[in-house]
């Protein structure tokens, strides 16, 4: 695809792009970003009539340029039907689970997506991986910089029951190999723990992660570090990777790496009226240090990262507005 056709699409052209898992936390923002850039968008869902997908129909531009169709990654023909007439496919759909069955399902589903896209003449695919496929390696030096060349240790993930990481590793490898075999241009976005505003009504895994610390329902936090990024940055990364004709390979989508103590301190500073988790699990080990990372490739796409403090603040306010969190005033906090 020429750079001029990408430019035309981003300025209100008539390209059709399909987003799998359109109703999810990341998928919804990818749909929103595409619509704002003038694309026609076709989303997939296993049950388009489910009320949990209703928010997609109210997005700006959805009435004119969005359709939601039924498709399942394990149903090859349903994918072909969804991809018919599409210039691009952004394969976002992925359950967050440690189910042992997830690995073969993720692999088969990803292979189906790539082959269906190739069979329908799709010109470009963007695949959503996870930093679970990148950072889970106990042998990585603490001084090493985490970047696109890094992979998690599969046996370590399997041994420690991090089967979601195993699934994302195998799915990404499958996507890369299948796309190469079919001559299909592929870019891979690798997001980490994703925070920020919710478009959907249901509470997703990472938002619940924040809510549990804010309300103190998680009694203690681990002596561990994690990487965070705003959901809008992840959505933009997908679209930028799609729009850049030369974009290939992995793009690490990390805004910051913090110890869990820093995360809860940030929540306590932003919302002092809440009973934020205050105790660290005493594992007898020295305090884990945040590792170095590089998001240079993503920045080269034109991506700028949202500060985590802004992302957390907006996430909490959004959860309050949607009824996922109680609104607590400073005065009420003194009686808790």
UniProtKB/TrEMBL annotation:
Residues 17-246 form the NAD-dependent epimerase/dehydratase domain. GO terms for biological process: lignin biosynthetic process. Signal peptide: none annotated. Gene3D superfamilies: NAD(P)-binding Rossmann-like Domain. GO terms for molecular function: oxidoreductase activity, acting on the CH-OH group of donors, NAD or NADP as acceptor. It comes from the Eukaryota. The keyword Transmembrane does not apply. Keywords: Oxidoreductase. This is NAD-dependent epimerase/dehydratase domain-containing protein. It comes from Panicum hallii var. hallii. The lineage of its organism: Eukaryota, Viridiplantae, Streptophyta, Embryophyta, Tracheophyta.
